[in-house]
Structure formats: structure tokens, C-alpha cells
Design a protein that fits this description.
Number of helices: 13
Helix content: 40-55%
Structural class: alpha/beta
Distance between the termini: 17 Å
Largest sheet: 7 strands, mixed
CATH class: Alpha Beta
Order of helices and strands: EEHHEEHHHEHHEHEEHEHHHHEE
Strand content: 15-25%
Shape: globular
Number of strands: 11
CATH superfamily: Vaccinia Virus protein VP39
Bound molecules: S-adenosylmethionine
Number of domains: 1
Radius of gyration: 21 Å
CATH topology: Rossmann fold
Strand order of the largest sheet: 7-6-5-8-9-11-10
Length: about 325
């Protein structure tokens, strides 16, 4: 569906001095009200059963509450291992200069920062390789190289961080400013279920630790398919099912008994972190989620388990 046909009105607000486009459904999830009026169905919020319309509001509150301490808590809860999972995502993605990334539920920008850094280092590597292959060039070679460089200069890579939560994006943007990342990066408030982008726009769609918070996962997958270019890649990093029973038992003890305590001590918020642990248990396992991605229309769907299945990376392509 072309953007012009979508019944959307986009506004522009200012986030710490930067323009971001705001999808009306993004902030308040009002866009889903038609569903609540036309016969509400229930869903889960952690282990609780809630009306569908309620879930998005509660999820919004969770991330609004934890935004300031989100990065610190990630390091504390995973002992830094979330960084390795995210690095691994980039390693599998192996993006090339010029690629356009959409990182949905991108929060404080971890995936987008890694993406831009990865393509920058790829570009450097390609330049070094080209320089080595012409170590003693003639003046003619040099002049040819200059004109070739102009013609072959890759398009700039871009990363769009899209999240429903303004507070998470605000923290991400502050982080980007403090580490000096701005080129090619933009921040958009938007709902994974109704993305504020035209069809066939991105080479790669990522969603890291975000999809289990979405009320209608099938709808989010459809939107991922829509905004990807043909040949584009969907990649989802998410907590999954631990395969080894001993590790599963230890992981259960750690997550139910330690994570809410850490949440209380570090972020002053037990409930949000209890939701986190419960929402992980409610999310489909590796095979079931793979099936959902295939059902949405993606091809060559596969997954990789990290840390014994604590986290899985699912990948699929749009044909
Ligand atoms: C656990 S955080 C993950 C943040 C980041 N991707 C990372 O890996 O650190 C989950 C994010 O999903 C966002 N989120 C939840 N529901 C969403 C929706 N329907 N559309 C877009 N983002 C959503 C939350 O606001 C939150 O920033």
C-alpha cells in the first residue's frame, strides 16, 4: 500500500532539537481503537490476561519508566552479554556500504550504532584493499582512479531507529550525541504494527528484543515485509527457549529470582522487570516463530541459537 493511500496524518515534533516524524498510532496506539470497539479480545501482558487495547498502553508505560536506566539494566541483567548478541547479529547481517537499515523497536539505538560502525569499517577495509592493489600507480592510473572513485562512490548507508516510545528514543538520541554519531542516522516515533514508511524502502529490517512486546506479531511481520525492498532481509533478535534442561532450570531461577530484584535496586521498578521475564516465557519458541515468519511471506527462514537458546536470531528474505 502506497503511503499516499494510507489514512495517516504525520506530524513533526522536536526531540532535543531534532525533527522526528510522528505516526499518530505510534504514541497512543489509538490507531488500534477500531479493534477495541469492534469486539475486544484478550491477550497477555506477561502472565496476566488483559484486553488487547490495554497491552500497548502497559508496554508503553514499562519503557517510559525504564528508559533512563534501560542501558544500565541491560548490562547488569545480562552481565554485558547482550552486547555480544547484538555484535553477533551484525556479524550475520554483514551489511555493505550503501545499505539502508530500519531498526524497529530500536529503543536507545544499539543496533543502529553497530550497523553504522560496521559499514564504516567495511568501507575502510575496501579502501585499504584498493590502495594495496595499486601500490605504485602511474599518473594515468591515479587520474583514472579519481574519476572511478567518483563514479563508484557507494551511497551513504542510513539507519532509521523507529520506536513507539518517545522516552526511549530521547535517551538514544542523547547517546548518539555523546558518542558523536549523527551521519546517516534518524529517529522516528512509530508503531511496528503500522509503520510510517512507504513500501519497498529498506534493505534490512531489524527488531531486537522488541517483537514480544507487540500486541499483533503477525501484523508487525506483515509491515516488515511491506517496507523491505524485494531481496531485503528481516532479522529478529529475541529471547527464546533454552534447549538444555539444566541450563533452562538455572536460567529460570536466575530470571525469576534475580531480574526483578535488579530492576528494583537499579531502576526502582520491580514490576517492569517482572513483566520482562514473564513476557519472555509467553513468546513462541524458535520453531513456532520461524513458522510465523514463513506464514507472513518470508523465504529462506532460518534461526541461530545464542547462549544455548536464551536468545535466537531469526532471519528471512522478501522475494
Ligand atoms: C527491550 S526494548 C529493545 C530496545 C533495543 N532494540 C535493544 O535491543 O536494546 C523494546 C523496545 O520495543 C519498543 N516497542 C514496544 N512495542 C512497540 C511497538 N508496537 N512498535 C514499536 N516499538 C515498540 C519499546 O518502546 C522498547 O523501546
Amino acid at each position: 500500500m502506497a503511503a499516499s493511500m494510507r489514512p495517516l496524518v504525520r506530524r513533526v515534533i522536536r526531540l532535543s532539537g531534532t525533527s522526528v516524524s510522528v505516526h499518530p498510532g505510534g504514541v497512543s496506539a489509538l490507531s488500534r481503537c477500531c479493534r477495541c470497539f469492534s469486539g475486544d479480545t484478550n491477550t497477555h501482558f506477561g502472565f496476566e490476561t488483559v484486553p488487547e487495547a490495554e497491552k500497548a498502553k502497559r508496554v508503553y508505560k514499562v519503557f517510559e519508566n525504564v528508559a533512563q536506566k534501560y542501558d544500565l539494566m541491560n548490562d547488569a541483567m545480562s552481565l554485558g552479554v547482550h552486547r555480544l548478541w547484538k555484535d553477533q547479529l551484525l556479524h550475520v547481517m554483514h551489511p555493505q556500504p550503501g545499505a539502508r537499515l530500519l531498526d524497529v523497536a530500536g529503543g536507545t539505538g544499539d543496533i543502529a550504532f553497530r550497523f553504522l560502525e560496521y559499514v564504516r569499517s567495511q568501507q575502510e577495509r575496501q579502501k585499504r584493499r584498493a590502495a594495496r592493489s595499486t601500490q605504485t600507480p602511474s599518473w594515468q592510473d591515479i587520474s583514472n582512479d579519481y574519476s572511478k572513485e567518483d563514479l563508484e562512490r557507494p551511497r551513504e548507508s542510513t539507519a532509521v531507529v523507529c520506536d513507539i516510545n518517545k522516552e526511549m528514543l530521547k535517551v538514544g538520541k542523547q547517546k548518539a550525541d555523546s558518542i558523536g554519531v549523527s551521519a546517516g542516522l534518524s529517529w522516528v516515533v512509530g508503531d511496528a504494527e503500522e509503520l510510517p514508511f512507504d513500501d519497498d524502502q529498506f534493505d534490512i529490517y531489524t527488531i531486537a528484543f522488541g517483537i514480544r512486546n507487540v500486541t499483533h506479531i503477525d501484523q508487525a511481520l506483515q509491515e516488515a515485509l511491506r517496507v523491505l525492498k524485494p531481496g531485503g532481509r528481516f532479522m529478529c533478535l529475541e529471547f527464546s527457549k533454552v534447549t538444555n534442561p539444566v541450563l533452562a532450570r538455572l536460567y529460570d531461577i536466575y530470571s525469576f529470582q534475580m531480574i526483578p530484584v535488579l530492576g528494583e535496586v537499579i531502576a526502582g521498578d520491580w514490576k517492569s522487570y517482572q513483566y520482562l521475564v514473564e513476557s519472555i516465557r509467553k513468546f513462541p519458541d524458535q520453531e513456532e516463530f520461524k513458522h510465523m515468519i514463513e506464514e507472513a511471506g518470508f523465504c529462506s527462514v532460518q534461526y541461530f541459537n545464542f547462549t544455548g537458546g536464551v536468545v535466537a536470531l531469526h532471519s528471512g528474505f522478501k522475494l
